[in-house]
Specification:
Elements: E1 16-20, E2 23-26, E3 31-34, H1 37-40, H2 49-61, H3 72-83, E4 89-93, H4 96-113, E5 121-125, H5 134-140, H6 143-146, E6 156-159, H7 164-170, E7 175-180, E8 183-184, E9 190-191, H8 194-207, E10 210-214, E11 238-241, E12 252-256, H9 277-290, H10 295-316, E13 321-327, E14 330-335, H11 339-348, E15 351-352, E16 354-356, E17 360-363, H12 371-399
Parallel strand pairs: 3-15, 5-6, 5-7, 7-10, 10-11
Antiparallel strand pairs: 1-2, 2-3, 4-12, 8-9, 11-12, 13-14, 14-17, 16-17
Helix pairs in contact: 2-9, 3-9, 10-12, 11-12
Bound molecules: pyridoxal-5'-phosphate.
Pyridoxal-5'-phosphate is lined by residues 95-97, 100, 129-131, 181, 185-186, 214, 216-217, 242-243.
Length: 400
């Protein structure tokens, strides 16, 4: 018989009772150092006092009201996100995929409102991940995610990662926009060169296309800047956010310029839950912490320290670690043995990590991680690699 929880996840047999900062305490009392952060969601770690306080105070006042009425907490959060970015306007959602759906609709509607309704196609990149709705699956273009779910939603043209000529070839009279993650997260922490992102901006300007960044995983400090696009010196027209935005509370957002959003008038889009007061309180609390003076400087310092330590580990454990890559605290270890075995070995050392594409182990510490916790994680990775290298030697010996 099927499990009562639909078995779409191959879950680890481990459950947690509570969390404190970078630590998770399992139901059996064991303590784990959490470098999954709920897959880049718990940017402030677990049970951050400011998030807990904001959510519990708001819950006592008003949880949900619907978008039939003004939501002052949401107006404040939207204004702050616009002040801190290229954007002029924000639509709030409950997830990353919904933020991308809004981004895709906004881009298509822009072309339609500009007198070019035939322009609806969007260029995307191999290895991308944009969510699990039918349209975002089509945008991601991964066969294993699309198989068996019927006709693929039309309107997406996928090109190889980092191939500018392929992008140019893919653009036609029906193209509306280019959609890209500045750093591919699920795809294996693949950093897109800044020059490539700038070239896409130029191409969009030249051809009348919108540039859409999926910063669902990179946004809100993960890469050391509030948004990953800040390093490029250019800006997108539309940007999707989610994961860290609510600090653990489900919250996504689609940001756009006045021009890009010109088709999104009253009645063109909606969400029952999106932007509810509870989510808005969580989002405002996260920004209070992340925008405090020095916070992002510390993220950058910690990221540098962690990367240096990991580079040393790679030299010492070349039998296990092939490459260290990433931006800020979005770090990937490409491994020589199956990444799942490394994730398991790290979990045996009570360090939690996430597998990603391209045989990568993702290290996603909370942004509030301390120097001592980074040193602790490095020691655990060191021990796990020792054991994995030993097993590999034994296996090679047995095979001979
Ligand atoms: C996680 C993720 C999504 C999907 O977000 P959900 O909240 O799971 O719908 C989309 N894009 C990127 C880059 C992501 O990392």
């Amino acid at each position: 018989m099927i499990s009562h929880v639909l078995p779409t996840y191959p879950r680890v047999d481990l459950a947690f009772e509570r969390g404190e900062g970078a630590w998770l305490i399992a139901t059996n009392g064991e303590r784990y150092l959490d470098f999954t952060s709920g897959v880049a969601v718990n940017a402030l770690g677990h049970s951050h006092p400011q998030v807990v306080e904001a959510v519990s105070e708001q819950a006592k006042k008003l949880i949900h009201i619907s978008n039939l009425f003004r939501i002052p907490e949401g107006e404040r959060l939207a204004e702050r996100l616009c002040d801190m970015s290229f954007a002029d306007t924000v639509f709030f959602t409950n997830s990353g995929a919904e933020a991308l759906e809004c981004a895709i609709k906004t881009a298509r509607k822009y072309q339609s409102a500009s007198g070019a309704p035939e322009r609806y196609r969007i260029v995307t990149f191999e290895g991308a991940f944009h969510g699990r709705t039918l349209a975002t699956l089509a945008a991601g273009g991964q066969k294993k995610h699309l198989d068996g779910f019927g006709p693929v939603v039309d309107g997406f043209d996928q090109v190889p990662f980092g191939d500018l000529n392929a992008v140019k070839r893919a653009i036609g009279p029906a193209t509306a926009a280019i959609l890209i993650e500045p750093v591919q997260g699920e795809g294996g922490v693949r950093v897109v060169p800044l020059s490539f992102l700038r070239a896409l901006r130029a191409l969009c300007d030249e051809r009348g296309l919108l540039l859409v960044f999926d910063e669902v995983q990179t946004g809100i400090g993960r890469t050391g800047d509030l948004f990953a696009y800040e390093r490029t010196g250019i800006a997108p027209d539309i940007m999707a956010l989610a994961k860290a935005l609510g600090g653990g509370f489900p919250l996504g957002a689609c940001l756009a310029t006045t021009e890009a959003a010109k088709g999104m008038t009253a009645g063109t889009h909606g969400s029952t839950f999106g932007g509810n007061p509870l989510a808005m309180a969580a989002g405002n609390a996260v920004l209070d912490v992340v925008l405090a003076p020095g916070f992002l400087d510390r993220v950058r310092q910690n990221a540098l320290l962690f990367k240096q330590r990991l580079a040393e580990l790679k030299d010492r454990h070349a039998a296990v670690i092939a490459e260290v890559r990433g931006e800020g605290l979005l770090i990937g270890l490409r491994t020589t043995i199956p990444n799942g075995e490394v994730v398991d070995a790290l979990r045996a050392e009570k360090l939690l990590t996430v597998a990603a594409g391209d045989n990568v182990v993702r290290l996603l510490p909370p942004l509030i991680v301390s120097d001592a916790e980074i040193a602790d994680a490095v020691a655990r990775i060191d021990r796990a690699c020792d054991k994995l290298a030993q097993t590999k030697l034994l296996k090679a010996g047995a095979a001979r």
